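From the methods appendix. Each design record in this collection lists the discretized structure first, followed by the designed amino acid sequence. Records were kept in a plain field format so they could be parsed without special tools. The example shown here is representative of the layout used throughout.

RECORD:
C-ALPHA CELLS (109 positions):
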C-alpha cells in the first residue's frame, strides 16, 4: 500500500486544479467518476455528483484508492469529502493527473 502522491491540503500546487475544484466542484467530481470508471463523462455522472455529492465523492475516492493501492478507509473517505470537499477533489484530480489520466477533460490540457 502507498500514500497519495500529494497531500490533501496541497490545494495551491496547481492553480488550475484549485480553481476548477473550488468553482466547479460537482463537474470535477463527475469527470473523476467517469475517468475512474473508464467512460465519457455524461449527464448521469453530473446528476449523481450533484444529487448525491458526499456518497459519490466517497465512492470515487475509494475507487481511486483501490485502483492505485493507496492506504485509507471508507470512513476517512467520507470524512474528507464531507469536511474538506474542495481539497479532497483537488487531491484526487492531481492523483489522476499524475497517473496519466485527464480527470477534468478540456481543463487539464
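DESIGN:
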Amino acid at each position: 500500500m502507498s500514500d497519495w502522491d500529494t497531500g490533501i491540503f496541497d490545494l495551491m500546487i496547481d492553480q488550475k486544479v484549485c480553481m476548477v475544484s473550488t468553482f466547479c466542484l460537482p463537474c470535477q467530481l463527475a469527470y473523476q467518476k467517469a475517468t475512474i470508471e473508464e467512460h465519457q463523462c455524461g449527464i448521469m455522472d453530473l446528476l449523481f455528483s450533484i444529487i448525491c455529492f458526499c456518497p459519490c465523492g466517497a465512492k470515487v475516492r475509494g475507487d481511486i484508492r483501490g485502483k492505485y493501492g493507496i492506504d485509507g478507509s471508507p470512513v476517512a473517505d467520507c470524512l474528507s469529502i464531507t469536511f474538506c470537499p474542495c481539497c479532497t477533489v483537488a487531491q484526487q484530480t492531481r492523483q489522476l493527473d499524475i497517473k496519466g489520466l485527464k480527470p477534468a477533460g478540456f481543463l487539464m490540457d
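APPENDIX NOTE: DSSP finds six helices and no strands in the chain.
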